[in-house]
Amino acid sequence: MTPMVPAAVLFALGSLLGQEAAPPLPATIHSMLDRDYPGWRPAGVAPQIAAWFRERGFRHEPDRIAADFDADGAEDFAVSVLVPDPAARQVVLAFLSRGDRFERHVLADDPPDPFVFLLLFARGTPDFDFETMKPFRHARDTVAIMYFQRSPLVFTYSGGGFRKRVMLSDEEI
After folding, report:
1. Which residues contact 38 (CB under 8 A, 6 or more apart)?
2. Which of 15, 35, 111, 169 has the largest CB neighbor count within 10 A?
3. Residue 111: is the preceding peptide bond cis (ω within 30°)?
């Protein structure tokens, strides 16, 4: 029988493997995940994606981002976790700091896929909107869920919630 490794230890190990890894998840977030998603664990990614993250020197892990999504000056988190039975799934959540607590937002709930990962578009990052065909800069820290089999989703916090957009590629226009 393989021993269960606590999620906190898995996140700490992931931090050691990254170049400038995101800070560990606060205990409050761990408690929320334990309560709402019993048996959860970090989603992790395929070795090819982990290698790409190391080569590029990303400042976050492929399944965890610390940023300021709501531009209030406090550190927020986005995480991708695997949830076991009854039907295994991969859930991406954002946790917004609200002083002594965190506000949870479910961004996606999909079948598990080791080729799904998170990317951070930091405030001020240039980008291109293929719907309006205009360049823009991200007004806030923004999280993207990158899928292998479909178009990525981009989530920007605004007006009390996260706005979801499909991030079209130039091949899809």
Report:
1. none
2. 15
3. no
